[in-house]
Design a protein that fits this description.
This protein has 546 residues and is an alpha+beta fold. Helix content is 24%, strand content 25%. Strand 14 (406-411) and strand 15 form a beta hairpin.
Length: 546
């Protein structure tokens, strides 16, 4: 072995014959080699320690790398590169791994451009499975990014590689220098603040990785590492343009507060659903490049009218992040954790829809998506304080039994069951009941749409898509309602609320006694699965007056 490192043909541990270099990074060099004992190709990582580490710490670091590499070798998972052997030679560790014939996800993005959401969902599902297996034995990857996700040539499987940073961090003697090792655009905000890495940190990095795969660009792009870190600490990423049904998952994983970040089990379920649902429409990829948004002053946003209601389309206002320049930075570098006080001017960009809005609602059926059609009567209670319900209208003879703890409420021409304590407000033509403990709400309108409910929803959806009226709108289902005491159809979809929160809703259009109604139930996306009894309770208890 030469002074600068091994050469082609050099034999490691009297067993692994070096063939050629297949990759370099901040943590070392990866060689393709031949295991002369088992007669198979392997990948050998020559682990390098950054300059400036004291000799005593360097030795401690080597020992920690060896321990954690051996721990990683216990992982037998189809989506994790298998560690075959760990040896120490020439005063440093060498990690012998499965040789995977593959392209990295970063190479695929660079060469092929943005990827389709369903494909990204499947790759995300597999990568998350790998992370959960590692987390289960106490290993946090710490460097999840597109270049560390390999896509195999034979079956297109996602394989997570390079747990090298996991071997370095975690030792207080080594981290007290204040260094964070990782790729700036994929470092979770809590790590940028100098806090320890945790499983949630890997989830944030996974979200950034999937965002990059969908959009062809990183969620945070700046000209230097410090600017990237400042943006991660203070800003939301620009809304993705290509993510389609993945939008709510990306938003949930990229929550800056780890306590609010989408849990792994929730993300796993949503990714699996998206990956296998061929009925969900996906957008044609938009080439990566600068993102610009029209600016509107939120203080003078016009109220929305009731022309566009849809699965809960109540208010589709959202705030985007500032414009990002094109380009990418994939260099793995050391960054100072103590960034200090960062003063960043955040340009708040918003797209507002006309009509009075709930906290997270989209446009309603019969609601307009253009300011010219806004209603003048859409002023009312802001929904933040309880309001007395009017005397309920007479219900139909087949009034349903309400769930325990619910009360019967009503509006003009109908009754509906709501949980005790939900706060009522009247906003324009709509009546809202909101959960005081979450962003969930139910909204009922007397609407002006025409035609049969199913066809009306098709027309509404076409308008939403044509005007991009709901951020990250994605249909889950469109169905006629059978067995109800009225003619009705439901549309179920996901979208981003105006605060950027991923939401999931179902909107029911009803024709009864010559009147037309729309009943919309909206729930935060990460609470949807656990809220099905509540969703059904609202829809089943709605009764128009006879």
């Amino acid at each position: 072995m030469s002074q600068g490192g091994p050469e082609e043909g050099w034999l490691l541990a009297n067993r692994y014959r070096m063939a050629s270099i297949v990759g370099r990074g901040g943590m070392g060099t990866v060689w393709q080699a031949r295991d002369e004992v088992l007669d198979r190709d392997v990948a050998v990582k020559e682990v390098l320690v950054q300059q400036g580490v004291a000799e005593a710490d360097r030795e401690m670091l080597h020992q920690r790398m060896l321990r954690e590499a051996r721990a990683t070798a216990r992982l037998n998972h189809p989506n994790i590169v298998t560690v075959h052997d760990v040896v120490e030679e020439g005063g440093r560790p060498w990690i012998v791994m499965e040789f995977v014939r593959a392209r990295s996800l970063q190479d695929i993005i660079d060469q092929d451009g943005p990827q389709q959401p369903r494909r990204v969902a499947e790759l995300g599902r597999q990568t998350l499975a790998a992370l959960r297996a590692a987390h289960a034995i106490g290993i946090v990857h710490r460097d999840v990014k597109p270049s560390n996700v390999l896509i195999t040539d034979d079956d297109g499987r996602a394989v997570l590689t390079d747990f090298g940073i996991a071997f370095i961090e975690g030792d207080t003697n080594l981290t007290q220098t204040g260094l964070i090792v990782g790729s700036p655009a994929y470092i979770a905000p809590e790590r940028a603040q100098g806090r320890p890495a945790e499983p949630a940190s890997d989830l944030w990095a996974l979200g950034a990785t999937l965002y990059t795969a969908c959009e062809g660009r990183q969620p945070y792009q700046r000209n230097d590492a410090v600017s990237v870190m400042a943006a991660i600490l203070t800003e939301d990423p620009p809304p993705p343009r290509n993510a389609g049904p993945l939008g709510p998952v990306l938003q949930g994983l990229l929550q800056r507060d780890p306590a609010r970040r989408m849990p792994a089990e929730t993300a796993a379920g949503l990714l699996a659903q998206i990956a296998t649902d061929t009925t969900v429409p996906v957008p044609a990829p938009v080439p990566a490049g600068p993102v610009a948004y029209a600016r509107t002053d939120p203080a003078v946003a016009p109220p929305r009218e009731a022309t566009m209601r849809g699965p809960g389309i109540a208010a589709l206002d959202y705030t985007t992040g500032p414009q990002r320049p094109a380009g990418r930075s994939g260099t793995t570098i050391g960054l100072l954790a103590a960034v200090g006080v960062l003063t960043v001017a955040v340009i708040v960009l918003a797209a507002f829809f006309v009509r009075s809005m709930g906290d997270e609602d989209p446009p309603r059926p019969g609601q307009s998506t253009t300011p010219a059609q806004q209603g003048a009567n859409a002023q009312g209670n802001n929904g933040n304080s309880p309001a007395a319900s009017p005397s309920p209208a007479t219900a139909s003879a087949a009034a349903p039994q309400l769930p325990a703890g619910w009360t019967q409420a009503g509006g003009p021409g109908y009754t509906i069951g709501v949980p005790a304590g939900w706060q009522r407000s009247v906003e324009g033509r709509s009546v809202f009941w909101r959960d005081p403990n979450s962003a969930a709400y139910v909204q009922v309108d007397r609407t002006e749409w025409t035609g049969a409910p199913y066809e009306a929803w098709q027309q509404w959806e076409g308008e939403v898509l044509a005007k991009n009226a709901l951020e990250n709108y994605s249909r889950v289902d469109l169905r006629n309602v059978d067995g109800a005491p009225y003619e009705a159809a439901d549309i179920e979809f996901t979208w981003f609320g105006k605060s950027g929160r991923p939401m999931h809703g179902v909107d029911r259009r009803v024709i009864a006694n010559g009147q037309r109604y729309a009943v919309f139930v909206a729930i935060p996306a990460d609470q949807w699965s656990a809220s099905q009894d509540q969703v059904n309770g609202f829809l089943d208890s709605f009764r128009p007056s006879p």
